Each structure stands twice: as structure tokens, then as C-alpha cells.
Amino acid sequence: MLEKLRKMIEESENIVFFGGAGVSTESGIPDFRSVDGLYHQRYKYPPETILSHSFFMKCPDEFYQFYREKMLFTDAKPNKAHLALADLEQRGKLKAVVTQNIDGLHQAAGSKNVFELHGSVHRNFCMVCGKPYRLEDIKHAKGVPHCSCGGMIKPDVVLYEEPLNDETMRRSAEYISKADMLIIGGTSLVVYPAAGLINYYRGKKLVLINKSKSPADRRAHLAIYEPIGEVLGKVYNGLRKLDNKTA
Q1: What's this model's pTM, rounded to 2 decimal places?
Q2: H or E stretch including 156?
Q3: 59 is in an annotated binding site
Q4: Which end of the chain, N or C, is less surrounded by CB atoms within 10 Å?
Q5: How many domains, the chain?
Q6: Which ranges of the chain would DSSP assign to H, the alpha helix?
Q7: CA 11 – CA 39 distance, rounded (Å)
Q8: Predicted pLDDT of residue 238
């Protein structure tokens, strides 16, 4: 299967990658729905409640306590999946990364054209004046972070009850619709509307890489049930070896 994937990549010139939480688990960031993920831990309120817009507005102190403890992983580093995708972009084969993750690890690995469907912990803004703030400002603030103008600062992440950014969705759909190969990795494809982006793909090289099965497996031209970092890491090494032979 890995050889087939490598060959598909070699023969493609317009690849788009669509990824979810599983892409970052090998960097030490827990996903939301695995056995050991965030949704299986116990807190005073369910994560879905804490990570909602209404809870953020009503109980910002509790929101930020949870957010700092369970959503910020500032020591996490890009893994083999992130690095392999950045390399494919540098080669001119990968045209875009569409991610549901908010950790910024794709950019840290070197990817440039990244569409963050659910926002990023690295962007924060004052809800009154719009002044931007860094992740470090949020992490080290005591209690609820406030702007110099007095307004409350909100992470630029999409909370429950909030819509996805229309322009980000539009551009993601546009890239996927034009791709000759779509690689989907580290996602169970159950979170909508993001999961619906797969419907824009019209090509014949749909690859799914995930440790568990998904509703879209029957549509895939290749499905691999292994950790995505291991898979893309091996494919990356295979491409490098091929480069050395042809150099």
C-alpha cells in the first residue's frame, strides 16, 4: 500500500491534503474522540459545553482555565506527517493543506498555503477594539486576559455555536475541487461542515489515512489504517531515496 501511495504521489501534480486531530497526536497533542482523547476525560462540565460560545461569554474564567490546561501545547513540535507535507509543497506537488487543527504545526514545519478551518491558538484578538495578541500573551496572563482598552481577549478559534469562516471554507473547497489527488488523514470525517468538503473532490485519487475506519472509506481509491506520521514518513523517505538515485 505504501508503494502504491508513493506512486500516486509521484504521478500527481495538484495534491491537496485535508487533515484532522490525528495528524497532531504523534506530536503529543491528544485528539478529541479517541479512547484517551479529551472527550473521555472528566471535568466539571463536558468539553462541548466549555468550548461553546455561550459558555465563553458567561463563564470566561472557567473557559480560560480549561483552555490553558487542555488546549495549549506550546512545546509540541511538527512530526513526520507535518514535515512530509511541507516537503511535498516545496516540491510543487502539494498545493494546499486544509486542517481542522488549531495548533499551527503545519506552518511550524514549513507549509505556507494552510487553511485553518477551526482557527488557530496563535491568533487572539480584543473583542472591543480588535487588537491582536500572541499565544504567549494568553498563556501567561492571569485569569481572563484583557486588552489595554479593557476589552476581553478571545482566541481566534471556532467554538461550538460559531460558524466557520466563509472565505476559508470557500477557498478550501476551491482547492479540493481542482485537485488531481486528495489525501485525507487523521480524521474520522464526522465533524461537519468541515467533513463535507470531501464532496467537492471529483478526481480519481482519493486516499484515506487513519487509524480507524471512516464513513468515506467506500469512496476511497486507497485506504490505509495506520498512524499518518508513520505512513507519510515512510513515503517521504522513499521519495528522498528516489531523488538520490536520479541525482
Answers
A1: 0.90
A2: strand 153-157
A3: no
A4: C
A5: 1
A6: 2-10, 47-50, 53-58, 60-70, 80-90, 105-109, 135-140, 166-178, 228-246
A7: 39
A8: 66
- At 178 the pLDDT is 97
Q: Cis omega (within 30 of 0) on the bond before 193?
A: yes
The C-alpha cell of 207 is what? 486516499
Q: Reduce the DSSP state of residue 173 to 3 states and report it.
A: helix
Annotated binding-site residue? 100: yes
State the alpha helices, DSSP H only, in 28-73. Answer: 47-50, 53-58, 60-70
Please write the tens of the pLDDT for every residue from 190-219. 778 888 999 999 999 999 999 888 888 888
- Report whether 210 belongs to an annotated binding site: yes
Give the amino acid at 47.
P
228 is in an annotated binding site: yes
Any idea which residue has 541525482 for its cell? 247
At CA 188, angle to CA 184 and CA 194, rounded to 5? 70
- With respect to residue 69, please indicate whether it lies within any of the assigned structural domains: no
Domain ranges, residue 210: 1-28+77-118+164-247
CATH code of 93's domain = 3.40.50.1220
Contact at 8 Å (CB) between 231 and 2?
yes
| Residue at 201 is within a domain | yes
Per the residue annotation, which of 53, 118, 122, 221 is the catalytic one? Answer: 118
Specify if 213 maps to a domain: yes
Banded pLDDT at 94 (limits 50, 70, 90): very high
With cut-offs at 50, 70 and 90, classify the pLDDT of residue 114: very high
Q: Is 82 a catalytic residue?
A: no
